[in-house]
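Many introductory courses stop at the sequence. We go one step further.
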Amino acid sequence: MFDRDVIDRAYDDLSLLPGAAAEVEAAIAALDRGEVRVAARGEGGWVVDQTVQRAIMLYFRLRGLDTMTAGPFEYHDKIPTKRGLAAQGIRVVPPGTIRYGAFCEPGVVVMPGYVNIGAWVGEGTMVDTWATVGSCAQIGRHVHLSGGVGIGGVLEPPGAAPVIVEDGAFIGSRCILVEGVIVEEGAVLGANTVITSSTKIIDVTGPEPVEHRGRIPARSVVIPGTRPREFPAGTYHIPAALIIGRRSASTDEKTSLNDALRTFEVPV
């Protein structure tokens, strides 16, 4: 498919990049076709493909700025937009954009949002209006990214984990997910929830709080919250996320989601 050793050597020694151009182009084409992914689930969890990340960074160095048009729109960029959407079964509403080097399975809908290079988006997922899927982010099947959701991207350093949203998750309006956080299968995030690698995710459903970081447990229902912290100037409340319940595993996904939103009064 492409020579990984050639790409890795060119990344470490940029003087070799001209001779590696064909392999870099082949790697990005494979990304665009969904034949490789920046991250995939392995036996011990999600595994990052460092060579593919390196190929993306080298691709930016190889490409020059070019003027592109799409109907009345003009763009001036290094990377073209994805082509052949109809044949791939992807719906994109103007001026939504999927960048070349991103892969979307059939049934993906992109409203006027954005899917960046290296991203992978699963079947039946909705990228709603002004939602953004950053570089290398991995979005599962039948996920809803509501309006204005920001999924952060990552390219450097090679090996850095991207944001991952697993199958069946619902991400409410204006949520922000960055720094390689993982939203596990079936979780629901209420509107304006912000999760970074350092955000305390506090399960408040039991008699004592249970803290998580960097990962939303499967089927959790999460809302924005705060926690007190002492500073020299006094006690102030800093952002946190609160797990206030679980989606039921005994009902189908649609019913479970609707019940969660009603039962826990989650803003979306």
